[in-house]
Specification:
The complex is a heterodimer of chains A (361) and B (627). Chain A is mostly beta strands. Chain A contains 2 helices and 26 strands. The termini of chain A are far apart. Chain B is mostly beta strands. The chains are: A mainly beta (361), B mainly beta (627). Chains A and B meet through strand 9, strand 12, strand 14 and strand 21 of A and strand 19, helix 8 and strand 20 of B.
Chain lengths: 361, 627
């Protein structure tokens, strides 16, 4: 298995377009189109064709002190610096897929150090679409754990012949728990496909996820206990009595323009007798506080007609309005070349003035 | 009558050859059971179980309200000159719908035939009755019979004062057949019948002798001097518990009576007659979870999968509230028996600020029955909204052991059953346990089988509000469940008995009638085996009603659903080759309940990030038939 140690990935955040076909052959009829957002890729030093993971999914990250943790990788198999392993014969999505031929018993190995992908690694998940005409292709998804030159563990999940659907695209999902090993940050996790029957297998839309015990970067904590009582009462939600839709442009939010800096909004709401409305990066809901700082309620900016939460955006701008807070939500596009942040067209910015009522205490 | 009797024998599968070829002596004629068989529909009389007084006395068929004197007639004629000293005779009944074959492959009594529900004369130890001397002109013998619980008057079904608890082994629903055995007094005196044949309550070598084996297949079948008659007449027994007949509140429920009504409470009348009681869940501490304190009408589309994912990633842990799913503090407030419409209404109550509730609701039948086709017509609450967001409820139609004295599962021969439902993997094993459960559980969760597709590869969520892709979870394309679909999980709790020859772990197939059913069991000590199919929420819970059927038989369980009784389709099937099927009496339960989604790995939604309901979630049970 040592031959499957891949180099530690070096992430180069450049944009490539997956839309340029690697082959003049047309895509198979009926193949789902690749969403435009999926076309941007990252460049890694993983072996082809795993060297171009899709950016929108694979760049999600959490900064833990001096290191960046990227727990998710996704490949749509549309782009690679070594396109020999891509074929347009069949694709589950887009135009191409990876081909493991009779010459490939071991697929390319994707390796990461534990501290590159997780704070606490609990399991490694891999999922992909596969297509083979072999009734029993003897495919095994393998995860190995290495410390230096020593292989600490080997996990495999076989495709059982009874589960195989020859000639059809089928999903192969794997999850290998890591609970038996006390992992260290420099340990390396490697995943690859073992084509034991040397069958021709097409692989597309590959996900590799490094799973932690909960949401990465989320602080733990305990709120009120409804059963056992004691401690603080649960914070109620303010009632959104009415919502007046506004034009985001009137709030200075224009699609394609440079986005304002993201910061915490602390606004005094005159219509609520000077209550403070607070919302900032990392929040799911806003908070209403008394002028003395006592948090009185949470705010969910639910708009019944839009059937959407105005806070359901990557960034929010809050201003005081005559009847309540004016909330304008928008998403951000970041130019990988220069880091410039602009207001995204999709999802479209939304703006409304909320008429809030505090819950009776 | 004799001709009719032998025609019936021909139709009665295993009986046919022996007696058709060796009819033996003819001693009596014109045997009639339940009157003239010609007056019955296709030879079958149908009767519904009379629930009156059945809680104390067990079901009696027929009751005094259904037949004069609470018994059916049976009779035969003895021609003149048949026997100077008279005849000896004995009458038997047996439930033929839900029984093991009387005879095993080796010709001996089937090893589990002693579990069959058969009886004879009211006093179980009474042997053969005598006609007395036959007058010169012949004789007509007129008798009566009724079917009642615990017909063998077994020691384990008695109270501490030695009284038989008939209800602890109630008559089964379904079809009953009969058997009459007749011989001359002289032959009777010569015969040395085993005590277990003379007296059905007596055991031989530790087991009861099934008279239907003894007389139709065993030693009795070859005695040419004995007339064995299988009457044409049969009896069909159906249970239709009255949904408008009230809901009793058990003594274990909270004592707050503020919700009591005329048809729900703990009055002596309801205690005596109500066919259902409010089911108060036991909610294990392991089901605790933290929940967002949001109240919303999910079914009115006030919450979406996007909201779920964002809250899961970003909602502060210290703002969550910790709870176990609740049970009612006010019995009768959330269940209603409507005598006008003959239905029961369930309401998972809405939450209010300061009163956040995820409250389980349900009803439970009060009369235990072993086996039967449990058919429930209901309109339980919708589970999904237009954006495919789940309300967090599991609609469940299930059977659970009734806890009657003496009701223990048959021994698990290999290494016993896991002893406790909540005992964990290190639980001790016991040769016999009472715990039994057969479920429909319907919720939003993916299938575990085939193994190749489980578990879905959900992204690892990240608490990064700047990047929408970091929140994706239920909104990712990792989902293996179909939009608009909910999963119908069919489960048999066999308490990990290893006796079945094809006991399996992981996904293991079972083929029946050319169709393969994928069973799943987490480990060799896991107490249940489950099959799952996806169905449309709108179809099962969006229409006027839907039918759910658990067909529980001694050797197989079939789960069916459909819009009407004549349009049921199979969604689950198991047999004794893969799972031990319980033989103890069970109650029917219908619930709408909140589960910790940790119980359902792969579920796209985390119960903790599903809001508390702002409106009651209402379900209606419209009809229950057990047959």
């Amino acid at each position: 298995m040592t031959g499957h140690h891949g180099p530690a990935a070096v992430l180069i955040l450049l944009l490539f377009s997956c839309s340029a076909p690697n082959s003049p052959e047309p895509a198979a009829a009926g193949v789902p189109p690749v969403p435009e957002l999926e076309l941007a890729v990252m460049v890694t030093t993983d072996p082809p064709p795993f060297d171009r993971p899709c950016k929108v999914r694979s760049q999600v990250a959490w900064q833990r002190r001096d290191r960046i943790i990227r727990p998710v990788l996704h490949w749509d198999m549309e782009e690679s610096a070594g396109p020999d392993r891509l074929t347009t014969t069949f694709a589950h999505s887009g135009r191409s897929s990876m081909v493991m031929g009779t010459d490939m018993e071991y697929g390319p190995s994707i390796c990461r150090k534990v501290n590159e992908v997780a704070d606490t690694l609990v399991a490694v998940g891999m999922g992909f679409w596969m297509h083979s005409s072999d009734p029993d292709p003897l495919l095994t998804v393998v995860t190995t754990v290495h410390r230096g030159e020593e292989q600490l563990a080997w996990y495999g999940k076989d495709l059982r012949a009874t589960d195989n659907h020859p000639g059809e695209w089928m999903r192969f999902n794997v999850q290998h728990p890591m609970k038996e090993i006390k992992l260290m940050g420099q340990d390396r996790i490697c995943c690859f496909l073992w084509n034991r029957n040397a069958s021709t297998i097409l692989v597309d839309d590959v996900d590799l996820v490094f799973l932690g015990p909960g949401v990465l970067g989320k602080r733990s904590g305990h709120g009120p206990d409804l059963e056992r009582g004691g401690g603080a009462a649960a914070l109620p939600f303010a009632t959104v009595a009415d919502v007046t839709l506004l034009d985001p442009r009137e709030q200075g939010i224009h699609v394609g323009k440079e986005a304002p800096p993201d910061s915490r909004h602390e606004i005094t709401i005159r219509a609520l007798g000077g209550m403070r409305f607070s919302y900032g990066p990392g929040d799911a809901v806003a908070r209403l506080s008394s002028p003395t700082g006592e948090v009185r309620a949470l705010v969910r900016a639910w708009h019944p007609t839009l059937a959407a939460d105005l806070l359901d955006h990557e960034q929010v701008k809050v201003m005081d309005g005559p009847k309540g807070p004016i909330i304008t939500g928008f998403d951000i596009d970041v130019d990988s070349n220069n880091g410039m942040r602009t207001i995204a067209a999709s999802p479209a910015p939304r703006s409304a003035m909320l008429h809030l009522t505090l819950p009776v205490r | 009558m004799r001709t009719a009797a032998w025609l019936s024998v021909l139709l009665w599968s295993l009986v046919a050859c022996t007696h058709d070829e060796q009819p033996g002596v003819i001693l009596v004629e014109d045997l009639r059971v339940m009157g003239d068989a010609a007056t019955l529909v296709d030879g079958v009389a149908t009767v519904e179980l009379d629930y009156t007084d059945a809680l104390d006395s067990g079901f009696v068929i027929p009751s005094a309200r259904q037949a004069p004197g609470g018994a059916y007639d049976w009779s035969f004629k003895v021609p003149s000159g048949t026997s100077a000293q008279g005849l000896r005779y004995k009458f038997y009944y047996v439930n033929t719908s839900y029984r093991f074959p009387a005879m095993g492959p080796d010709g001996a009594q089937h090893p589990l035939a002693h579990e069959n529900f058969y009886g004879s004369f009211e006093r179980s130890s009474e042997a053969f009755r005598s006609t007395g001397p036959i007058p010169a002109e012949g004789l007509e013998v007129k008798e009566r019979f009724r079917i009642h619980g615990d017909p063998r008057e077994e020691a384990e079904f008695k109270d501490d004062q030695g009284r038989s608890l008939r209800w602890a082994r109630n008559p089964r629903v379904g079809r009953y057949g009969f058997l009459v055995v007749i011989m001359t007094e002289e032959h009777f005196q010569q015969l040395e019948l085993p005590q277990g044949v003379m007296d059905i309550s007596a055991k031989q070598d530790g087991r009861f002798i099934d008279p239907f084996w003894y007389w139709l297949h065993g030693p009795g079948s070859t005695d040419k001097a004995v007339q064995v008659i299988v009457p044409e007449a049969q009896l069909q027994v159906v249970a239709r518990p009255d949904l408008g007949g009230g809901i009793h509140i058990p003594s274990t429920a909270p004592t707050n009576s503020a919700g009591y009504t005329n048809t729900c409470g703990n009055t002596s009348a309801l205690s005596r007659t109500a066919p259902f009681e409010q089911f108060i869940h036991y909610v294990d501490p392991s089901t605790r979870f933290a929940n967002i304190p949001l109240i919303a009408d999910v079914l009115a589309n006030e919450y979406t999968p996007k909201d779920h994912d964002r809250y899961k990633a970003l909602f502060r842990a210290e703002d969550m509230v910790t709870l176990r799913p609740m049970t009612t503090p006010t019995p009768c407030a959330t269940v209603e028996s409507d005598p006008e419409r003959d239905r029961i209404i369930l309401r998972n109550p809405a939450s209010r600020p300061g009163d956040l509730r995820k409250e389980n609701v349900g009803i439970r039948s009060r009369h235990g029955l072993a086996y039967g086709r449990y058919r429930v017509k209901c309109k339980l609450t919708r589970l999904l909204n237009d954006s495919d967001m789940w309300v967090g409820l599991t609609n469940a139609i299930w059977l659970i052991y009734d806890g009657a004295p003496g009701c223990m599962r048959r021994p698990c021969e290999k290494d016993g059953y896991m002893q406790n439902y909540y005992g964990g993997d290190d639980d001790a094993r016991a040769p016999r346990v009472a715990y039994s459960e057969i479920d429909f559980e319907i919720l939003k969760t993916p299938a575990y089988c085939p193994e190749v597709s489980f578990p879905p590869t959900y992204p690892q969520p990240i608490a990064d509000s700047d990047d929408r892709a970091a929140w994706a979870y239920s909104t990712s394309d990792a989902r293996m469940d179909k939009p608009g679909a909910i999963t119908v999980a069919c489960t048999n709790w066999d308490m990990a008995c290893h006796d079945p020859e094809s006991f399996g772990v992981g996904c293991h197939p079972l083929t029946k009638d050319g169709r393969t059913y994928l069973n799943h069991r987490w480990s060799k000590d896991y107490r249940a085996v489950t099959q799952k199919v996806e169905e449309l929420d709108a179809e099962l819970f969006g229409g006027d009603h839907y039918w759910f059927e658990i067909d529980w038989r001694p050797e197989e369980i079939t789960w069916r659903i459909g819009p009407e009784l004549d349009q049921l389709r199979v969604v689950g099937y198991m047999d004794r080759s893969i799972t031990e099927i319980s033989n103890v009496q069970m109650h029917l339960i219908v619930t709408q309940e909140y589960h910790n989604t940790r119980w359902w790995p792969g579920t796209p939604y985390d119960q903790g990030f599903i809001p508390f309901p702002s409106k009651d979630l209402v379900g209606e049970i419209m009809e229950v038939i057990i047959e």
